[in-house]
Write a structure and sequence with these properties.
With 222 residues, the protein is α/β, with parallel strands linked by helices. It is built from five helices and eleven strands; from the N terminus they run βββαβββαβββααββα. Among the domains are: 3-62, ATPase, nucleotide binding domain (Nucleotidyltransferase, domain 5, 2-Layer Sandwich); 73-80 and 97-127 and 162-208, Nucleotidyltransferase, domain 5 (2-Layer Sandwich), CATH 3.30.420. The strands form two sheets. It has a six-stranded mixed sheet with strand order 6-9-8-7-10-11. The chain is globular, with a radius of gyration of 18 Å. The model has no long low-confidence stretch (mean pLDDT 96).
Length: 222
Amino acid sequence: MKVLTLDVGNTSVDACVFDGKKLEYLGKFAHQDIEKLKAGFQEVLVSSVKPSVNPKLAGAYLFRGEEIPIKTSFEGKEKVGVDRLLNLYGALEFYSDWAVVISCGTALVVDVLADGIFEGGFISLGIGSRLRCLSERAELIPLFSLEKVDTFLGKDTKGAVLGGLKKEVIFYLKNLLADLRSFYGRDFRVIITGGDGWFVEELGEYDPLLIHKAMLRLKGLL
């Protein structure tokens, strides 16, 4: 039996299919395509952070934060996004109990797992979202496609925008990782996920299907 896994984000839906042996990425889809995606699958597993589309998921299994076996060092686990908890569960199951999970989607999320316990994290504007926001707010700056630009100083608008974006994000993450290593007195396994994770993959291990693997593991299928 094939299982469909859906990561319903704020902007789009990532879909995978698992045949019992291999996990295959189907692609990125619009929210209105959910019902069409579900057709033909007896089992559908879903991580959703967009409640407005949940009615389209009737018959699917929607994960809830309280069922994900991640301990926290703070109260209010039920208020944490289910995607963050699933990514942490995936990091714990497949990588390490000392891990930093960097999720690069609509938001840029950094979460810390220390000795198997979720310590907390940060949420800021996503990498691609920063480009869109800048273009929308600045009339003379076009919307550039996200790509790595390795430049010391930008010599044109594209180099200035994309080069500045890379330095902004990489410097932020490197400094944050250095702070964590200093505070905890040890190293962390850095796991990067999300559609834009390739942009910062130099900082750790890029696993774009982490949340899908976590859903399957939690249901005992992987």
